């Protein structure tokens, strides 16, 4: 048994312990991200998206929405440097009046800790919980800081936000493209509907609905429409294909958690001590979510005075397999 002590920032005041993750420290930011999608139809080799060909564009902006560094593209895939694209332009810049400009040279970064699935396919579905955990993690913040040239301490000091946009890599009329949801909608309008005619389930469903806002921010509204089915170009441009990670006013917390491995068929009570520097009251309670062997266990309505400590615990049984509960740091 080994006690581990780590200071961190919570995701939506949700404290989590999780298993088998490649991200060593959890939660630097507050993720304003949600998503949906649906099933795919069939396509042809001239117009096709293969299920795992996705990524994200990350733009660092001020809390007022000013872009402070060139956006970066991230993907787990091996993408050709000659894939057609529209450069490193964010949704905020398109909203401000930037126009599409085709580029035949493409650069991106492949994180050492793989991205979660971003765009749901016909078989494998994306997990918004996994996307939030990834982009609100210390690892992601440090990686993005290193790629944008913004010191890590400055990135998380409350002056900046991350704008996250889903990217699809696909073939259209025999040519390979990289596009964000906003770029696909703008291109579709300019081409008289060329993308929606041949790739509607990708460009007007699963790509734009991969990420959208839970609450309004940076001038973009929370998405209250359907989370499946085809959406219009205008809806995509105004509201979809965007998630935001905030660092401002996210209170610091302390989590102390032991590592345990339990024998088969053992009754287990696992607990963590929670300490908050600010009051957590019934109007805005915290919750502790335990991720154990694929299961999710949540303790809700946690309240505590400023500077006080509260214990959160769950009870379970290891049943037929060895049960490991671990907070990795």
TrEMBL record:
The keyword ATP-binding does not apply. This is Uncharacterized protein. Residues 29-245 form the DUF8193 domain. Residues 258-310 form the DUF8194 domain. It holds the Pfam family DUF8193. Keywords: Signal. The keyword Transmembrane does not apply. Residues 1-29 form the signal peptide.
């Amino acid at each position: 048994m080994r006690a581990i002590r780590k200071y961190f920032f919570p995701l939506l005041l949700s404290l989590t312990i999780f298993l088998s993750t490649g991200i060593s420290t959890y939660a630097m930011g507050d993720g304003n991200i949600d998503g949906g999608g649906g099933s795919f139809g069939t396509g042809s080799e001239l117009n096709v998206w293969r299920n795992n060909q996705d990524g994200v564009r990350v733009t660092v902006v001020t809390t007022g929405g000013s872009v402070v560094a060139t956006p970066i593209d991230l993907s787990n895939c091996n993408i050709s440097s000659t894939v057609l694209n529209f450069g490193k332009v964010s949704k905020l810049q398109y909203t401000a009046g930037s126009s599409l400009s085709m580029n035949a040279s493409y650069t991106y970064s492949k994180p050492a800790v793989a991205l979660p699935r971003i765009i749901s396919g016909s078989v494998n579905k994306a997990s918004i919980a996994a996307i939030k955990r990834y982009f609100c993690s210390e690892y992601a913040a440090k990686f993005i800081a290193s790629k944008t040239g913004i010191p890590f301490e400055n990135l998380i000091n409350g002056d900046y936000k991350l704008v996250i946009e889903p990217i699809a890599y696909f073939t259209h009329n025999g040519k390979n493209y990289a596009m964000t949801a906003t770029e696909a909608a703008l291109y579709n309008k300019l081409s008289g509907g060329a993308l929606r005619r041949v790739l509607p389930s990708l460009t007007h469903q699963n790509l734009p609905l991969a990420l959208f806002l839970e609450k309004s921010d940076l001038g973009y509204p929370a998405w209250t429409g359907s989370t499946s089915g085809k959406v219009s170009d205008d809806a995509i441009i105004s509201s979809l294909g965007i998630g935001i990670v905030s660092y401002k006013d996210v209170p610091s917390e302390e989590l102390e958690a032991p590592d345990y491995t339990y024998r088969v068929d053992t009754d287990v009570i696992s607990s963590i001590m929670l300490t908050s520097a600010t009051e957590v009251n019934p109007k805005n309670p915290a919750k502790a979510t335990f991720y154990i062997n694929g299961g999710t266990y949540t303790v809700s309505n946690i309240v505590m005075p400023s500077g006080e400590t509260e214990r959160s615990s769950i009870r379970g049984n290891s049943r037929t397999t060895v049960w490991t509960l671990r907070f990795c740091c």
